Design the sequence.
């Protein structure tokens, strides 16, 4: 997939809490919530530690990111996005700066990321397939 | 785990949109959003078709259910729950009735489930471990 649907880009840039599903070493699912942003047509997240989800991604890059799309009164299921991605982890001195940028989206423009600056990790997610319920998802994919 | 924390039960009964993470046959993650309810200390969901997630659960019962816990202004990450469960699928004539009960939670007390009555499936999720961020989750699990 080379470009994300406009409505999906807008939703990502609005700061949804994103569930990241990875696979543990024993094959079981692992889920945590992260902040996400856009880097061109890829999704990015920043991390100040080498957490379980990053180790999982390094072992198996197949990652699903899913998030709600805002309340639509009377809708049967809230709009939501399920993004099937290939993810890569890189050690980066820019992780804090990414997190600081996302802090202004998720917590408000006057906020700074509260952790001290330092080296971290950035995950890039290349979106291979878009599903869910909403203007970004064909109904057949539900 | 024999009993769910009170705050978690209240959250489930408030009708959160729940992300269900299962494992596909090829080992990749699969995610969809479902309605959930309580049946004693287990979580339940109802389904009118034998969807991919149900086939995945029959192959590998390790399922993670995750959902947001409501907005807390200024919180760094919204409260959220990550429930590691063992799930079982059963064909059931009560699936529609479960979905009809949940319709009143998720869409409002005057609503009925819009699909015609008929046989379906109920998934029971036995919660083995509770994580996330909130009163139900020890900080060390983050």
Sequence:
């Amino acid at each position: 997939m080379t470009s994300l649907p406009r409505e999906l880009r807008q939703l990502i840039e609005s700061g949804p809490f994103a569930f990241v599903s990875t696979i543990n070493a024993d094959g079981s699912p692992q889920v945590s919530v992260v902040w996400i942003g856009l880097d061109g047509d890829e999704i990015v997240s920043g991390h100040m530690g080498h957490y379980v989800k990053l180790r999982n991604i390094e072992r198996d890059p197949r990652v699903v990111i899913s998030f709600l799309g805002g309340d639509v009164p009377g809708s049967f299921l809230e709009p939501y996005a399920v993004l099937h991605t290939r993810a890569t982890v890189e050690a980066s001195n820019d992780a804090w700066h990414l997190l600081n940028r996302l802090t202004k989206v998720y917590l408000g423009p006057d906020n700074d990321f509260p952790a001290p600056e330092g080296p971290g990790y950035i995950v890039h997610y290349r979106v291979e397939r878009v599903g869910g319920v909403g203007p970004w998802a064909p109904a057949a994919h539900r």
